[in-house]
Amino acid sequence: MEEKLRKIGAEASKALAEAGGLEELNDIRVRYLGKKGELTQVLRGMGALSADERPLIGQIANEVRASIEKELASRTIMLKDLAKEQRLKDEGIDVTLPGTPLPRGGKHPLTIVTEEIQEFFLGLGYSIAEGPEIETDYYNFEALNLPKDHPARDMQDTFFITAETLLRTQTSSVQVRTMEKTTPELPVKIIAPGRVYRRDDDATHSPMFNQVEGLAIDRRITFSDLKGTLDLFMREVFGPKTKTRFRPSYFPFTEPSAEVDISCVMCGGKGCRVCSHTGWLEILGSGMVHPRVLEVSGYNSEQVTGFAFGLGVERIAMLKYGIDDLRVLFENDLRFLQQF
């Protein structure tokens, strides 16, 4: 039995030395050290040995087992290292090669126009003000000279959440909040960009759209200041040859009020289908801040005046880029967006 044990040890050592992979090593382990392995089978026959032979054979068996386990562990480490080196070679990366280029995104046309508007007014000394999109009836209507029974409320089809809260229909509410914070400080010069909501949905209207409203309050501000500001703005956005026209209109929060038109960007004012052959395009609403709005916010309307205006960013973008359907601005179609 001693000879058989030493023979098993020699065969196992040779098999381990010739093993070329981890799976083969596992097969060798099972073959010699498993429950049905060759070494185990020999040890099961020790019961037939005499009392004097058992200690010697047991010692030899332990030495053979320890030798096999030691060589098995050593060979496992070596083969794992070889496998790791081979994997590193196979998966090697040349760090000097250029990386895989990622497609660069671009700004949405509404973002481009909004930033252009902001840059212009920041250059004139205005600051940017923000406010909540879920607004109270007071800030959205009452503080802007539209009490609950005012017929002008019908001009806006509003999303009400409760009787006193709603999705704001204009960013004019930000003007009121700003005046409350700044009174009696002067001057006040802000623009209020943001999303607003009304129940409209067709090729030229959306239930959610973007506005930029402006407000300037100081002593001795006149309608001429409003005209000069907006005339300069239109020429900056649509080109130096753009002409502006002010038409009398009505807004509850301004008095006097005016609609502002620009010479048609398509035909240069000659008349075409876009401008209904009038040569003019309506672009925004404006006017002098109503004395009641000033008073509600804490300003003395006998000492200060101001002007306000509001424009739709989508309207500007459609005219600037020749877009004939508002809905494409919200469809996230890459064929459209990649043009910008």
* Proportion of helical residues: 40-55%
Rg measurement, Å: 42 Å
Average pLDDT metric? 87
Please count the helical segments: 11
- What is the fold-level CATH name, i.e. the topology of the largest domain? BirA Bifunctional Protein, domain 2
Task: Indicate the overall shape.
Answer: elongated
Name of the CATH class of the largest domain: Alpha Beta
* Helix/strand/pairing category: alpha+beta
What is the annotated CATH architecture of the largest domain? 2-Layer Sandwich
Q: Summarize the biggest pleated sheet.
A: 7 strands, mixed
- CATH homologous superfamily title of the largest domain: Bira Bifunctional Protein, Domain 2
Low-confidence segments: none
Number of individual domains: 2
Order of helices and strands: HHHHHEEHEHEEHEEEHEHH
- In the sheet with the most strands, the strands line up as 1-4-5-9-8-7-6
What would your notes on this structure say?
By secondary structure, the protein is of the alpha+beta class. It folds into 2 domains: 2-90; 109-337, Bira Bifunctional Protein, Domain 2 (BirA Bifunctional Protein, domain 2, 2-Layer Sandwich), CATH 3.30.930. The protein has 11 helices and 9 strands. It has helices at residues 2-18, 22-33, 38-44, 53-90, 109-123, 137-140, 172-182, 223-238, 291-296, 313-321, 334-337; strands at residues 127-128, 134-136, 165-167, 188-197, 208-218, 244-251, 254-263, 280-289, 305-312. It has a 7-stranded mixed β-sheet, with helices on both faces. Strands 2-3 form a two-stranded antiparallel sheet. A hairpin with a 2-residue loop joins strand 6 (244-251) and strand 7 (254-263). Helix 2 (22-33) runs antiparallel to helix 4. It is elongated, with a radius of gyration of 42 Å.
